[in-house]
Amino acid sequence: MNLPSPYLLFIGNATDPLSIKMAKSAADWSPEMCVGEYSLPGCSVTTGLPAMTIEEGAQQGAKAFVLGFANSGGVLDPSLVASIITALEAGMDIINGLHDKLADIPEIAEKAQALGRRLIDIRHPTTKFKTGTGVKRPGKRLLTVGTDCSVGKMYTTLSLARGMQSQGIKATFRATGQSGILVAGEGVAVDCVVSDFISGSVEALCPANDDDHWDLIEGQGSLYHPAFAGVSLGLLHGSQPDAL
């Protein structure tokens, strides 16, 4: 996945710190890839990066306008479309982590096409996955799990990966959600994979490897969560973890 950078992080008019977790993840884990944040009136949260306008972000060299917010259902509020149009006109591609596809919004799609800009829906895999096999494969794998959503699974996985790498241990962070993909530049948003293929997508994400290599797999949801347990179970089957 080729994500243009540096990023200008768009946090809209958010008031809940958890709602900007995608932007905050990039600011915390890849600050060198971010020029700053852009917000709208009424926003009461921040990533901690410098606040700037879209025009200032473009002048600072931003190549991508990241929709760094999330909401229940992953829908794009129509009130935010104007900012996306402005970013396109300023010369930026758009990176989107919502369930809504930007290409399905005529006003945005038409403007992007006219300007030759990219609309990158990182939550929607372009790869066709096979069903999981359950066949044992070499390499070590750790899956982070939790009792709910947004309890720190991704941050824990990234911390482990960087800590192990600093000790000379062969370790790779495997992103399974939009925030992790933005940080790592690659991965699979498993909550957008058709359910029959979730375990297969995870097998493809962390395939056979050296016996002393660790794949550190970002967990999603929780087996206790009535809405998202299916994704959690698919991750468990596909990763065949040596450690949880």
List strands and helices in order, with pairings.
Layout: E1 7-12, H1 21-29, E2 34-39, H2 54-59, E3 64-67, H3 81-89, E4 93-96, H4 106-115, E5 119-121, E6 140-143, H5 153-166, E7 171-174, H6 178-184, H7 198-205, E8 214-217, H8 229-239
Parallel strand pairs: 1-2, 1-3, 3-4, 4-5, 6-8, 7-8
Helix pairs in contact: 1-6, 3-4, 7-8
Structural class: alpha/beta
Number of domains: 2
**Given the structure, what is the number of helices?**
8
The CATH class of the largest domain is: Alpha Beta
CATH architecture of the largest domain: 3-Layer(aba) Sandwich
Inertia-based shape: globular
Oligomer: single chain
Can you tell me about this structure?
There is one protein chain. The protein is of the alpha/beta class and 244 residues long. It has two domains: 7-121, Rossmann fold (3-Layer(aba) Sandwich); 140-239, Rossmann fold, CATH 3.40.50.300. 30% of the residues lie in helices and 14% in strands. The protein contains eight helices and eight strands; from the N terminus they run E-H-E-H-E-H-E-H-E-E-H-E-H-H-E-H. The chain has helices at 21-29, 54-59, 81-89, 106-115, 153-166, 178-184, 198-205, 229-239; strands at 7-12, 34-39, 64-67, 93-96, 119-121, 140-143, 171-174, 214-217. A five-stranded parallel sheet has the order 2-1-3-4-5, with helices on both faces. Helix 1 (21-29) links the parallel strand 1 (7-12) and strand 2 (34-39). Helix 1 packs parallel to helix 6 (178-184). It is globular and about 50 Å long. The model has no long low-confidence stretch (mean pLDDT 96).
